[in-house]
Amino acid sequence: MPGNPLPEGAPPTSTNADPLDAEGVLGALADDLAADLADQASRAAEAAVPEPRGASGDAAADGSAVGEGAADEDDEAARAAAYQASVMAVYGGRRGLAEIGLPTMIFVGVYTATTRLTLSLWCAVAVSAVLGVWRLVRREKVQNAISGVLGVVVCALFARHTGQAKDFYLPGVLLNIGEALLFGISALLRWPIVGVVLGPITGEMMAWREHPARLRAFMRATLLLAAMFVFRVLVEVPLYLSNQTTALGAAKVLLGYPLYLMIAFLCWQIIRKAPPPVRAEA
Q: Which residues contact 64 (CB under 8 A, 6 or more apart)?
């Protein structure tokens, strides 16, 4: 049942905002971020109260603000979901993450059960190869499976060359040392790796460096990842030097994706609270 018509000069209500309109999303978010926190709280309280029928011009204006606030919430949710999906796409989604880590888990399990280095290496390489072929058969992206195969092959060559099972983990230990330095130094130089990687994904390229809030968010996320790599090094290096291969394998698994996913979640919480990405000027 339609309500009373709006008085002349009253602003129209906004009830048909399109949450998929990218320009509208960015514009609405920029307006919200520029507004004072007290004003945002006031608008949120007004949104919880339904507009009475036959509203005056002032009430109609309030209704317009309520409608815009609801649209902004929908836009924010849509933006966050798309942003998170684009980041996960870099790793091939959840299955891509599994394909990278599964061969290492196979090596740990087989070697712990049999203590046979050659058998363990072949099992890990075989699992990587099967995952790669499966993606090819399904005509899916294979970059993650290929990186997993190459990583396992490199680890296997290290262990095969020295004849020591602990050297299967040496490339990973060296990689953690290198990544701890790279991430830490990049943040100190105000070129955080997280921003460099995510910039092309969000379409803002390096424009985030001109926005202090986004720069700070990317620096914090990068430093958090650097701390994760440092923690891995502090745990794995003593185990490697003391030849505790089984414990090193267990640490590799526990400090791999369980820890990484937790840190990635914390990084996402930091980034999503930053101002939205701004498209780089052509």
A: 11, 12, 13, 14
Q: Are 209 and 195 in contact (CB under 8 A)?
A: yes
pTM (predicted TM-score):
0.63
Give the confidence band of 75 by pLDDT, cuts at 50, 70, 90. low
Q: At 163, phi and psi to the nearest 5?
A: 80, 10
Contacts for 113 with CB less than 8 Å, ≥ 6 apart:
none
The crossing angle, in degrees rounded to 10, of helices 193-202 and 57-90 is: 110
Mean pLDDT of 101-126: 85
Residues 32, 38: Cα–Cα separation, whole Å: 12
Q: Report the SS3 class of residue 277.
A: coil
Distance CA 261, CA 243 (A): 28
Q: How far is Cα 27 from Cα 204, in angstroms, rounded to an integer?
A: 15
Task: Give yes or no for a contact between 219 and 190, defined as CB atoms under 8 angstroms apart.
Answer: yes
Q: Where are the alpha helices (DSSP H) in 138-282?
A: 143-162, 170-188, 193-202, 212-241, 245-254, 257-272
Query: Over the stretch 31-53, which tens digit does the pLDDT of each residue have?
Result: 444 444 344 434 443 433 333 33
Rounded CA-CA distance 41/37 in Å is 6
Cα–Cα distance, 177 to 189 (Å, whole number): 18
Of the segments 78-92, 115-129, 132-146, which one has the largest average pLDDT value? Answer: 115-129
Could you give the CA distance from residue 220 to residue 70 in angstroms, rounded to a whole number? 30
Residue 199: name the closest of 144, 102, 281, 280 by CA: 280
What's the first-to-final CA gap in the chain, in angstroms?
A: 49
In angstroms, the CA 49 to CA 66 distance is 9
